[in-house]
Amino acid sequence: MDTKKFHLLLVISYLAVFVWSMINPHDYFTWFLEVLPAVIGLILLFIIYPTFRFTNLVYVLIFFHAIILTIGGHYTYAEVPLFNWLQEIFNLDRNYYDRLGHFAQGFVPAMVAREILVRKKIIKNNRWLFFITVCICLSISALYELIEFAVALLTGASAEAFLGTQGDVWDTQWDMLFALLGAISSLLLLQGQQDKTLKSTLPE
């Protein structure tokens, strides 16, 4: 499939999920907060598309991350049905969709950040590249937690579903840990494939 057509397919597929998520969500305030990062990301990708195109690997990862965010916006992270079912089946202490979301928060940005660093030749040493990429992902995770904190202070109980702590006083620390694990996992699993893709099929 032509690259541009593939990118268009990803956009159309996401928009279909986005429209679905708008129909009778848990509450529109939480929906707005959860899908906003995906919408901002999509807008930024459109803006830079004429001058900087990521590899298909990164676009696919961004697509799935956006889907995770949008599903979380529809149900809230604490009430995603599949993970409620898993909670009941395995007698878990919480709905773990939130953990999946924060794992993705490290997994996907790691490939995005690494590709930018490599293509712009900002960091050439592989060890430093690994370290700086992980640091960027942790910074993103910390920023998101600060945003959650600010929303909670400004809106009070209205932000409870957005926070999704599910009664865990260490929820913030767990969120950042899973983002860290996601970033490290992404680099260990995909950096080789990313390098091959960059060498063979750089975007126009």
UniProtKB/TrEMBL annotation:
Coiled-coil spans in chain: none
Residue ranges crossing the lipid bilayer per the database entry: 7-23, 29-49, 56-77, 100-117, 129-154, 174-190
One family name in Pfam for this protein: DUF2238
Keywords linked to the UniProt accession: Membrane, Transmembrane, Transmembrane helix
InterPro entries, alphabetized: YjdF, YjdF-like
Descriptive protein name: Putative membrane protein
